[in-house]
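In this supplementary section we document a worked example of the pipeline. Step one takes a protein sequence of length 302 as its only input; no multiple sequence alignment statistics are reported here. Step two produces a three-dimensional model, which step three serialises into C-alpha cells for compact storage. The input and output of this example are shown verbatim.
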Amino acid sequence: MTSAINPNNINGAYPVAGQDNNSQGFRDNFTNTSTNFQYAADEITDLQNNAVLKGALTGQVLDNDMQGSPLSNALLSNMSENIVVLNTVSGTTVINYALASYQTLTTNGAVSLSFTNFPAAGAAASVVVQVTVASTIHTLILPAAVSINNTGIQGLNTSTNTITFAATGVYSFEFSTSNGGTTITVREVNKRLQPFNNSSENLADTANVNAAVTTSYFSTVAATTAQLLAGVPGQIKTLAMYADSGNMVITVSNAGWKSTGTGNITFSNIGEACTLQYINSNVGNILQSKWFCIGNNGAIFS
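The serialised model returned by step three reads:
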C-alpha cells in the first residue's frame, strides 16, 4: 500500500526565529502534524493486524495464520513442517489436517483412519501419515472416501480398503484431495524398491496367506491348515510345500474351480506347488473375480 503520511505538508522552516510569525502557520503545522500522526497510527495498526512477522510484537503472541490468503512467486529454503504425534493407537484414529500435514502413529491393533478438516473443494491438500507397524496382525483400514483404484500398494485389499503388512516396520502414506475430502487418493511414499516377485513368507498353521507377497511356502510338522482370502484382479500367488511332516490344506475364498464359494488345495508331499491368479470373469452378465489355477505340480484341488 502507499502511505497517506505526507511529510512535505509540514513547514520545517516555520516559525522564523527573531521575527513576528503569523499564527496561521502554527495552526497549519499543528493540524498537518496531527493528521499525519493519525495516518501513522492507522497504518501501524493495519500492519499489526495483517502483516506476516518473524517474531511476536511486544506484549503479543505470534500468530501468522494466513486464513487462506494466497502466497505466490515465493522462493523457499530451509522450510520445515509441524508434526502431530498420535502415539500408540488402535481402532478409529482421526487425522486432523488442520493440526499438521505430517502425522505419526504406532499400531496397537487394527487402525481405522478417519480424516477431518481438509480445506474446502477447489484447494488441493495432502497429509502424510507415518505408520509404525508393531505386528503383522495389525491392519490399516482406509475410509470409503479413499480411492480404491490404487493397486500399487502391497497388501491393499481394494474390496475392503484394508492394508495387510508383510513385515513390521515404518510405512508412510500420502493422502491427497481436491474436493474437501469427498475423494481421497493414496500412495505409499517409502515403498521398498524391490520387485514384487522377490517377496515371500513362511506360512504358519491357521494363518491367512499374506496377500502382500507373491510366494507362500510352508514346512509342516503335523496336519496344517491356512486360508487364502480374496485377492486383487490380476494378482498372482504361488503356494509351495518346502518340507512335509503332515498335509497342508489351504481353504481358498472365491475358488475358480468351484461354481461358487470356497475350495480347498491339499499339499501332501515335499515339492508340491501351484500358482494361482485372481481373474475377473463374466458369469450371466455379472462380473466376478476368482482364484484360478494357472500352474500345478501335484497339489489336489477340491
